[in-house]
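A.,

Following up on our hallway conversation. Structure tokens first:
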């Protein structure tokens, strides 16, 4: 039970640190890395939600009916979350490369075509 509370504390700490990094970021690559850390806080949270002490994997061929097992929906959500994060990070890094090539900087305050 205590490890669960520590897990939620780790998820909250990762979320808070990443959110602070996003708010104070002065570089697009730093912002993207902070978004990746923010996403990893959801991994920790999903692991905590789906974890059951002493429960086997959700392969129901060899366990008796009514036996508690780890929730397979949470595992599927975790895999989906990882795939979505990889796609989003690839897209954001490609956009950061394009901004660097056109503006010569990754600092949002120094990019002239973003100002009015």
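Then the amino acids I'd put at each of the 116 positions:
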């Amino acid at each position: 039970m205590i490890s669960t509370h520590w897990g939620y504390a780790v998820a909250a700490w990762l979320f808070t640190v990443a959110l602070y990094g996003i708010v104070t970021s002065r570089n697009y690559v730093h912002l993207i890395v902070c978004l990746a850390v923010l996403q990893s806080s959801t991994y920790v949270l999903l692991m905590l939600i789906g974890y059951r002490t002493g429960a086997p994997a959700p392969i129901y061929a060899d366990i008796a009916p009514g036996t508690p097992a780890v929730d397979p929906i949470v595992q599927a959500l975790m895999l989906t979350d990882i795939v979505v994060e990889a796609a989003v990070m690839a897209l954001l890094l490609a956009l950061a490369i394009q901004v660097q090539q056109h503006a010569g900087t990754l600092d949002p305050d120094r990019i002239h075509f973003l100002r009015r």
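The mean pLDDT is 85. Curious whether your intuition agrees with the design.

B.
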